[in-house]
Amino acid sequence: FSRLKNGLSRSRDALAQMVPGGSVDALSxxxxxxxxxxxxxxxxxxELSGALVHKARKRRGGSIAALxxxxxxxxxxxxxVNEPAGGPFVLLVVGVNGTGKTxxxxxxxxxxxxxxxxxxxxAADTFRAAAVEQLAVWVERAGADMVRQHEGADPAAVAFDxxxxxxxxxxxxxxxxxxxxxxxxxxxxxxLAKVRRVITKAYPEAPHEVWQVVDGGTGQNAVMQVEKFRxxxxxxGLIVTKLDGSGKGxxxxxxxxxxxLPVRYVGVGETLEDLMEFNAEEFISxxxx
Length: 289
Ligand code: GDP
Hints:
Helix content is 49%, strand content 14%. The chain is α/β, with parallel strands linked by helices. An eight-stranded mixed beta sheet has the order 3-2-4-1-5-6-7-8, sandwiched between helices. Guanosine-5'-diphosphate is lined by residues 97-103, 131, 241-242, 244-245, 267-270, 274.
């Protein structure tokens, strides 16, 4: 996981300055305060940072190993991705524009194709012609298929068509992209709820998963976005992108802990290989010095 290590190097370097090695018992009160501050600065969040330090102090051995164990213990139990035994696996992808939603869908479609699965992508973000074009490029490159309508078309209609076609033609995976203007936009939230409802109408078990893409460099904004979308979209998992651009990789732990949601993928760069399946052990080992 050297790519992940590279991607998280800024976060790790920042934490290295705050977390002295050595045994838990040998650290002074002041050093523990520094560690807690370091975790807060890495965007673990004040509440989680306090809890992590509290847990780590009770453990034996080296401070970094103790922190690592306490981080792992604070993450929710993660169930496997809810893929159905038969029929298409329907994945709804939500999130605010600019977080990397389009490229992330392209990358996920490519991954499924590489596993030999047929993939249909629905472009229900009908307000951004440029984003649809960009998505089309990814979809074609992946060898997947796409459902699209004219600019400004009803997103729910696109979602409905996508699911109907996905079921009729027995695709393995159906991914529905959605619009993400501003999370405070009431109209957008109503629209998202409608897209979800229509998907369930077209195929009663769907969506099987709802993944929200968030930009890992945006701190409290990311927290608010998850809070907002969770109610309306019924978010079941997170994808945290752009962790390479900031020293704030702790946001991944904060979001997962705070909302009890699994992180499914993390993004540490723009290429296909930079989106990787989240593994708590590897992530935390890459985050800590
Ligand atoms: P959307 O508006 O949410 O659909 O965002 P896009 O998919 O268009 O992505 C916006 C920009 O972020 C693009 O230039 C992507 O290449 C870039 N991007 C996406 N994920 C990552 C990441 O993990 N790291 C970095 N550095 N850039 C990313």
